[in-house]
């Protein structure tokens, strides 16, 4: 009889564990193991705890726990050039045999010669030409296939890793931590929404409909009986600077309470989100780690951070010092 | 000792129940009690079961279970006039004392006189004037407050119920049923996204970021040190007809596998979504119930359904006959 009782007691214990396993796992383990102990990590954890504790005066209901993250330089690297620009360059190279006129037509000629400075000097008009050639005048599915193929095979010039492995391990943990605490996580990027949607779910656990980004206009067509979406060579939304709060308004429809960026392109989004009523949290990732990643800010041609650095403390934004605050930068390779 | 053993056995049983309660509740009860037994209800249940059963050849992973619903005439009524038009009319009336010039300026003069036909005859130019006066040149928060106030107090001219109670009980059950089966539910409406976002979460359980609709352009501004989003009197997206697949592409970024509409404004969205690979389900709600709701289709000035009725069987779309298929139309009043 005693044995049977013991077995029952064990069963009870096991069942309790099965029921509570998820809860206790979240409470027990450090949710941010790649973040060094210090004021940045503490500030994040304190914010999340105060908005999720029911009895807290700063409690925020789950449906208002909106967190937005910039992508380039915030979730993945952006040096030596925005990765989507490298995609554009590689597409131009791939398409060049069918476009002999590009040998003399700018900015294609400079792209094919590898003269990045001259390409960038071609300005907005040049950029639109490249976008039209590599991102438009094709169906949404064709674009998705091209981008997915490139992401599979292309390698970063410095690390030789796939671009989808140039993502930040501490940010992956932060995204997971926020979601485990009832936050809905979004990307709000100056990069192309259609481009980011190709890899965001696998890389960050962020589904396509939670990606806001720069976009082209599109049209619906039935081609030979097959309905398609065609990407047009015309800008729909520039989701950068003052375009970011607009993009959030149009796509998310709520003011976020948690916002993370790394450059002055994120300034207005940080400003708008953290000016709302109730508890707000703004983060700027400062690239200070020339050894493990890159070090750049006020004078960078990519991801310039100037006004944001000046105003961060006045605005109450938390600045992440990559070198000091992060134990690891990139996740282990899957290759 | 026997008593203690019994207590332990009971504990085990109770714990099992606590763990499994949600699962068994979903399996046991009819998830669509307001739908009459018949081919429409069976078709819905069969589709959901085949895409969610792991061993089914038609299994669809959860992250691809995207369901989109039109709003006017699909989730709530749209007679005698789109409810948002009634909102516009009521706002014009409310604002009229500050606009003496409207007494002679069309379409405001006709709105104030209650001459609906003349208002509609003012066409797109007239509509844009009303939109500019009632939906733009104000901050997003001001618009939200105005719309929320109106929804609280306005009553439907025929039923005298709040507009948010003119929603369809069978559709609420369908939304819940889909979500319980891992679907993510979206609204894709010709109506204004900002308007629908005011009530969609409470009425349908659909959060603001899962509402796609017609929208105005917007800009970001800092007014007296306070950051705001200003709604501009310029169309951003007309999310109707061929605009619906475009809206889904831009906002959701995936082709839905389940789509519900009621008018020819939903034709292209139905066509595009159901032409995708793998299992797809298209629904057209046919308003056949003059007694409990309204009966209209081919000749209606609102929610015209003509081509959709012609092509439904050829395209494999399921037509809901409101009168036959629905046990109840509206939910019980909360007033």
TrEMBL record, chains A, B:
Superkingdom, taxonomy of origin: Bacteria
Organism the protein comes from: Microbulbifer bruguierae
Keywords: Amino-acid biosynthesis, Hydrolase, Magnesium, Metal-binding, Serine biosynthesis, Signal
Cofactor(s) listed in the protein's UniProt record: Mg(2+)
Name by which UniProt lists this protein: phosphoserine phosphatase
Record pathway: Amino-acid biosynthesis; L-serine biosynthesis; L-serine from 3-phospho-D-glycerate: step 3/3
GO molecular function: hydrolase activity
Enzyme class: hydrolase
EC assignment: 3.1.3.3
Pfam families: HAD (PF12710)
Catalysed reactions listed for this entry: O-phospho-L-serine + H2O = L-serine + phosphate; O-phospho-D-serine + H2O = D-serine + phosphate
PANTHER family: PHOSPHOSERINE PHOSPHATASE (PTHR43344)
Signal sequence, start to end: 1-28
């Amino acid at each position: 009889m005693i044995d049977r009782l013991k077995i029952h007691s064990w069963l009870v214990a096991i069942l309790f564990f099965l029921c509570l396993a998820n809860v206790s796992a979240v409470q027990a383990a450090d949710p941010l193991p790649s973040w060094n102990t210090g004021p940045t990590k503490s500030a994040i954890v304190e914010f999340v705890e105060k908005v999720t504790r029911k009895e807290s005066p700063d409690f925020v209901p789950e449906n208002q726990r909106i967190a937005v993250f910039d992508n380039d330089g915030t979730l993945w690297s952006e040096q030596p050039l925005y990765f989507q620009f490298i995609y554009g360059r590689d597409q131009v190279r791939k398409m060049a045999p069918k476009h002999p006129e590009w040998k003399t037509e700018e900015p294609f000629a400079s792209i094919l010669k590898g003269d990045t400075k001259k390409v960038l000097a071609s300005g907005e008009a040049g950029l639109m030409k490249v976008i039209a050639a590599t991102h438009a005048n094709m169906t949404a599915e064709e674009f998705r296939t091209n981008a997915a193929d490139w992401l599979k095979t292309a390698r970063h010039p410095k690390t030789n890793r796939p671009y989808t492995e140039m993502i930040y391990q501490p940010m992956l943990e932060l995204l997971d931590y926020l979601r485990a605490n009832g936050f809905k996580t979004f990307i709000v990027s100056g990069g192309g929404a259609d481009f980011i949607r190709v890899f965001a779910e696998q890389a960050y656990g962020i589904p396509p409909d939670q990606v806001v980004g720069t976009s082209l206009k599109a049209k619906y067509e039935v081609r030979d009986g097959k309905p398609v979406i065609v990407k047009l060579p015309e800008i729909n939304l520039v989701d950068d600077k003052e375009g970011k709060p607009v993009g959030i308004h149009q796509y998310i429809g709520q003011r976020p309470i948690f916002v993370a960026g790394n450059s002055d392109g994120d300034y207005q989004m940080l400003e708008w989100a953290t000016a709302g009523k109730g508890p707000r949290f703004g983060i700027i990732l400062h690239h200070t780690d020339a050894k493990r990643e890159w070090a750049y800010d006020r004078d960078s041609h990519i991801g310039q951070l100037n006004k944001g650095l000046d105003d961060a403390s006045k605005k109450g934004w938390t600045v992440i010092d990559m070198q000091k605050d992060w134990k690891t930068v990139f996740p282990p390779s899957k290759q």
